[in-house]
């Protein structure tokens, strides 16, 4: 199949997932065309089945806001026509689903039909999409897509709850590539971070409000009070400053390291004992799945799609959002007992296998076939 993938090229979950999906499909022989405004972060290697089409928006003094949507729609028309695409798969509803609809209508006037699959990732529905400023366009473009997927059953339900959407939404979970995410021996590195054999806790996110990074620091404070530990905070974003201030206030600076944005997340997860994800909103939790694939149990909140991934009492524990005391208690429970920790590690890996790329990719392929067969 010749597939156009539209996504955000950044480190965010939707962009990562879209890129990994494209690369996985390319390995199976599909011709993949990424269409976005920058080279996607994880698109670093050359693959003969992968092309990247950059969307450029020229500045003009009249424009207060650069008309990215218009430039993207024009680029989609161009790529669909000249690369003879069979299908467009857009990730993150805003603005991609609406722009794809526009491109589709333009192409129809020229006698070319292009089906559009939209994947809902989370904040496009839960935070941004339900904002009244976007809601009518989001609902319309979901209803007009030829296929719609959501990354968890919870997100699917939230979409029905927030929007006037009648069409069927198929749940296809996030996936993981075990060729990359697997436990490896990084003992020398572990020694550098935790020279006295301290436990290592890890948090990876974009440091937005929804990630509740302050809760991560508060949980760590309690854990470090009972068990010698170190905390690695990976990623960057608006809440980093306040998290750093809290570390200073709680006198934790010697035990917490802010590593900023990192590419080789799997190498950091290789030395981790526990992953913290106390999010206030999380449609699936790809970062937690990456940790589980590297045999790291997860202490998380119980919002959104997290209960579909993290099995309470088996792969980790879940608590209500903001219940820092309980999350710390659970963390200490796992970390203080080596045998229990190893059992949780094994369970986390077993559960992560359910989301192996080789299981999930065929679900997307089958869905594309289904959408293509409905061609009207
Ligand atoms: O807000 C983020 O964490 C980034 C966001 C995105 O859309 O880029 O991630 C969302 O999509 C991921 C991939 O499907 C999911 O695993 C994340 O749970 C989801 N984030 C939220 O719902 C907050």
Structure description:
- This protein has helices spanning 13-27, 68-82, 93-109, 123-126, 135-144, 153-162, 187-193, 213-226, 240-249, 265-269, 286-293, 324-335, 338-353, 357-373, and strands at residues 2-6, 31-36, 50-54, 87-91, 116-120, 147-150, 170-171, 199-204, 229-234, 256-260, 274-277, 298-301, 316-319.
- The strands form two sheets. Strands 3-2-1-4-5-6-7 form a seven-stranded parallel beta sheet, with helices on both faces. Strands 10-9-8-11-12-13 form a six-stranded parallel beta sheet, sandwiched between helices.
- It folds into two domains: 2-175 and 356-373, 3-Layer(aba) Sandwich (Rossmann fold), CATH 3.40.50; 187-355, Glycogen Phosphorylase B (Rossmann fold, 3-Layer(aba) Sandwich), CATH 3.40.50.2000.
- With 376 residues, the chain is an alpha/beta fold.
- The protein is built from 14 helices and 13 strands.
- The structure holds ligand GMT.
- Ligand GMT binds next to helix 1.
- Residues 12-15, 17, 92, 121-123, 151, 174, 206, 208, 210, 281-286 line the site of ligand GMT.
């Amino acid at each position: 199949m010749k597939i156009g993938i539209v996504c955000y090229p950044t480190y965010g979950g939707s962009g990562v997932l879209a890129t990994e999906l494209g690369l996985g499909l390319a390995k199976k022989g599909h011709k993949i065309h990424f269409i976005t405004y920058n080279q996607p972060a994880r698109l670093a290697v050359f693959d003969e089945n992968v092309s990247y089409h950059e969307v450029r928006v020229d500045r003009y003094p009249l424009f207060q806001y650069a008309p990215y949507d218009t430039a993207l729609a024009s680029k989609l028309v161009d790529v669909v026509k000249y690369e003879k695409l069979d299908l467009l798969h857009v990730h993150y509803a805003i603005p991609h689903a609406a722009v794809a609809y526009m491109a589709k209508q333009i192409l129809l006037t020229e006698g070319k039909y292009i089906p559009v699959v939209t994947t809902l990732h989370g904040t496009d529905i839960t935070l941004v999409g339900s904002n009244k400023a976007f809601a009518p366009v989001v609902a319309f473009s979901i209803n007009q897509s030829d296929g719609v997927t959501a990354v968890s059953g919870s997100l699917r339900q939230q979409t029905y709850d927030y929007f006037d959407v009648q069409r069927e939404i198929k749940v296809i979970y996030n996936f993981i590539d075990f060729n990359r995410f697997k436990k490896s021996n990084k003992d020398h590195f572990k020694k550098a971070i935790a020279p006295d054999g301290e436990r290592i806790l890890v948090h990876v996110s974009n440091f937005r409000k929804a990630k509740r990074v302050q809760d991560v620091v508060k949980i760590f404070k309690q854990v470090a009070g009972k068990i010698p530990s170190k905390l690695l905070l990976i990623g960057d974003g608006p809440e980093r400053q306040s998290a750093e201030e809290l570390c200073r206030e709680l006198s934790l600076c010697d035990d917490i390291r802010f590593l900023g944005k990192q590419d080789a997340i799997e190498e950091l997860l290789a030395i981790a004992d526990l992953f913290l994800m106390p999010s206030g909103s999380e449609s699936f939790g790809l970062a937690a799945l990456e940790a589980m694939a590297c045999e790291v149990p997860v202490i998380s909140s119980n919002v959104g799609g997290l209960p579909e991934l993290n099995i309470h009492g088996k792969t980790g524990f879940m608590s209500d959002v903001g219940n820092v005391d309980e999350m710390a208690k659970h963390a200490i429970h796992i970390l203080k007992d080596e045998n229990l920790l190893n059992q949780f590690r094994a369970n986390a890996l077993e559960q992560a296998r359910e989301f192996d790329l080789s299981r999930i990719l065929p679900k997307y392929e089958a869905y594309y076939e289904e959408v293509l067969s409905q061609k009207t």
